[in-house]
Amino acid sequence: MKMKAIVVGSFLAALMVVPVSVQADVLNIVNGDFETGSYADSSFTPIAGWTDAGTDPGFWLGKDNSLTGLDAASPQSGALYLTGSRAVGGAASQPVDATLSQTINLSPANLALVAGGSATLNLSFYYHDEDPADEGTVTVTFLDGSASELGSISTGVMGPGNYSSTEWTFMELSGAMDSATEAVRIDISTHRISATVSNLQYDSFSGSVIPEPSSVALVGVFGVGALFVRRRMKK
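Below the sequence we write its predicted structure tokens.
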């Protein structure tokens, strides 16, 4: 009789804790699709949600390749995309290197997932580059409550040499988040190797914070199991 109770108890222990997937929470990127604004707006206009810390604008809102055949013929989605081409804004010159940034404070739901120490950040976007003289990079930096850097993830150098140059290319970054993370900074960068125009484009940024599978106690199973044990012991 005691053996029966032990066997059932072991079976119960196996059922009490099971892995479950906790739902991911959206990273609140402002104007990640670059639809807020007007055609030819520069990063000094500014472009809503984003900051250009350079001395001259390095980004504009574009829509087609009517000014230079090396730009994307149309947005990946919507009516506008982000471009490094000064031709769109009619600028006489532009920086060789430019970075457009956005710092995002994690929502309470994000923070709750990160606090467990096992959350992953996923960032996706689309990239277009037909000019071998231009390169791009996207970096996500994890920040603590005092804006100190905890770590980062990056695409590395992107260019027509290692990505499809005639179509929008889907890109995705993924990395573990330090449990002290309270904000993330997205940096969109361009680098011009030669010539005078940075002919590369970005569109459709989105992100999420994803927890690792967690374990939960199944109270209902425990109740049924305990009742089963009691009944077997009474017989």
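The radius of gyration is 25 Å.
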